[in-house]
Amino acid sequence: MSRREKTPEQALQFIHAVARHQGWAVNADDRFVADLAEGLARNYSRYGYFLCPCRDGEGDRNEDADIICPCRYAVPDQQEYGHCFCGLFLTKAFAASGREPQQIPERRSPDA
Description:
The protein has helices at residues 8-22, 30-47, 74-81, 92-97, and strands at 25-26, 89-90. The protein is mostly helical. The radius of gyration is 14 Å and the shape is globular. Helix 1 (8-22) packs across helix 2 (30-47). A two-stranded antiparallel sheet has the order 1-2.
């Protein structure tokens, strides 16, 4: 495996490291998280960075900078809805509530 490739297991480690560092919770649905880890690993292998698998990127790090996981919108989404756009990262309060993430509005401009 080249340095530019990541496995889903490595992406899962990344997810949990980000959550610990930020003080966030990870979605409790293991299958959902595994699917997102697969998408993150695939995008890393394609582009060399963890592009959010829930959004379409350009494959250019500068153009995609706002949607590299954790995306620039994660904090405002969590502040307003309790979780990020894709539902991967939750505030601890939202996670403790037992509620499941719901679809939320896209903050990213279509021109981004």
